[in-house]
Amino acid sequence: MSNDKLILVVDDDPDLVESVSMRLENEGFQVAKAYDGVEAWDRIKDERPQMLILDVMMPRKNGYELCNEIKKDDKFKDITVLLLTAVAEAVPHTTYTHMDGKSTLADDYIPKPIDLDNLMEIVKDNL
User: Fold this and answer.
1) DSSP class of 6
2) Which of 38, 66, 91, 106 sits between 20 and 30 A of 99, alpha carbons compared?
3) What is the mean pLDDT of the chain?
């Protein structure tokens, strides 16, 4: 079942999920929430969102892995994926690399900390 304006917000930071979700709802979008990549994949299969706003650094399954799984699955590859990334600043301290970001199949990138006005423009441009 396709959901024309459903956006799944995925981040392990509940405050970020809430602030992004509230802004999306104020703009007239339906919002679903998940707090890690495994939970997100379950929600994607159940609810078939039109867009994912997906954090990169998460427990259990990171955003790069989930994005690539979605884009390689014929049933879900047309879901727009926007990656939230603070990776540029975090690269020296993590296992994530700029190469991961360049090799992923995401549709667009949003740097953290998130500028909600900028995020809304990107969401509208991609839906």
Assistant:
1) E
2) 38
3) 86
DSSP 112: S
Domain regions of the chain by residue span: 6-114
Dist. CA 24–CA 120, nearest whole Å: 7
- pLDDT tens digits, residue range 19-49? 999 999 999 999 999 999 999 999 999 999 9
Per CATH, domain 6-114 is 3.40.50.2300: yes
List, in sequence order, every beta strand (DSSP E) within 4-121. Answer: 6-10, 30-34, 51-55, 80-85, 108-111
Q: Token match 């930071």: residue?
A: 13
- Say how far apart CA 90 and CA 92 lie, in whole Å: 6
pLDDT at 6 over 50: yes
Report helix, strand or coil for 56: coil
Residues in CB range of 1: below 8 A, 6 or more apart: 47, 48
| In the chain, alpha helices (H) | 14-26, 37-47, 63-71, 87-90, 98-103, 116-126
